[in-house]
């Protein structure tokens, strides 16, 4: 007679492996004094244009670099390279999100001590990236005005796990009759207190506020990390 | 659709545990799944069957306990269960909420094994 089945307690997080790697990455970033920003959004919301503009504006004052995730092409990396900062492509194949180990592998050969900011552009997807920590200090969720005001309600998890929301393509807001108040209200419903910035990478509107926000959150993060240096220009970004 | 890779991690994790118990057979895997974990229950159940194929866990069940979002209301000074994932406000006093106590779980809690 076979023994009775029995229940054994396990208690293990399914994403434990990713969380361990993300924690190691975060530790490395902190030791090197690099502030890491990840960008998440749906496809076509303007992550690459926003990042290209950000890198171009930061480059005169800071040492910046970017990793960019894409399913199949290196088009985004080629676009970002125009900003003349180090850019590396992570091609995920069929995987719909970046994982911490991919970031770790992509960083091989890079000297993090020589960076002030590292940007990680996730695969365009508002679902899967929410579950994976990639070791970032700041998760930015982008929402373009052409997508509609209710995106935060449709994808509450990604908005709830992000630290700041950026409304992109503001230059088109009037044409598409974007309801800014409703969008702001929806963001606050799923993530009360989350800052909301409005930008246009095309005409540069709002980019100054974004860079000031970045300088301020990165400076306070660096102050909380014992023994790391603050970049000379941290308090006065050129916009 | 990242449920398949999550299902494969669950299978791998359960297999390791079973191996540590002298190759016990796994009848069922018990999982806690939070409403904020970013994982769809039905997709995970379907993926689990696929992930089990050809492994020692073939034929096993995935038993999912769905965990609602429980927050801490700073005004009521009490934990509250949210009615909706689309509104992070206290269901009693409607204060905005930022502290999540439960709802992010994606955790294997137990295995039913047969030695």
Report the β-strand fraction of chain A as a percent range.
Answer: 15-25%
Class by helix and strand content of chain B?
alpha+beta
In spatial order, strands of the major sheet of chain A run 4-3-5-2-6-7-8
N- to C-terminal distance of chain A = 77 Å
Q: Give the CATH topology of the domain at 3-68 and 102-114 in chain B.
A: hypothetical protein PF0899 fold
What is the CA-based Rg of chain A, rounded? Answer: 19 Å
DSSP summary, beta strand count of chain B: 6
Task: Summarize the structure in words.
The complex is a heterodimer of chains A (239) and B (115). With 239 residues, chain A is α/β, with parallel strands linked by helices. Chain A has one domain: Rossmann fold. Chain A is 34% helix and 19% strand. Chain A has eight helices and eight strands. Chain A has helices at 16-32, 47-58, 75-81, 100-106, 151-154, 156-160, 180-190, 207-224, and strands at 6-13, 35-40, 64-70, 87-91, 117-121, 138-144, 164-168, 196-198. Chain A has a seven-stranded parallel β-sheet with strand order 4-3-5-2-6-7-8, sandwiched between helices. In chain A, α2 runs parallel beside α3. Mean pLDDT of chain A is 91; it is low at 232-239. Chain B has 115 residues and is an alpha+beta fold. Chain B has a domain at 3-68 and 102-114: hypothetical protein PF0899 fold (2-Layer Sandwich), CATH 3.30.2320. Chain B contains two helices and six strands. In chain B, the strands form two sheets. A three-stranded mixed β-sheet of chain B has the order 2-1-6, covered by helices on one side. In chain B, strands 4-3-5 form a three-stranded antiparallel β-sheet, with no helix packed on it. In chain B, a hairpin with a 4-residue loop joins β3 and β4. In chain B, α1 (3-20) packs across α2 (41-52). Chain B is elongated. The A-B interface holds A 2-15, 17, 95-97, 127-128, 130-131, 153, 156-158, 160-161, 188-193 and B 1-2, 5-6, 9-10, 13-14, 17, 21, 27, 30-31, 36-39, 85-89, 96-98, 100, 106-115.
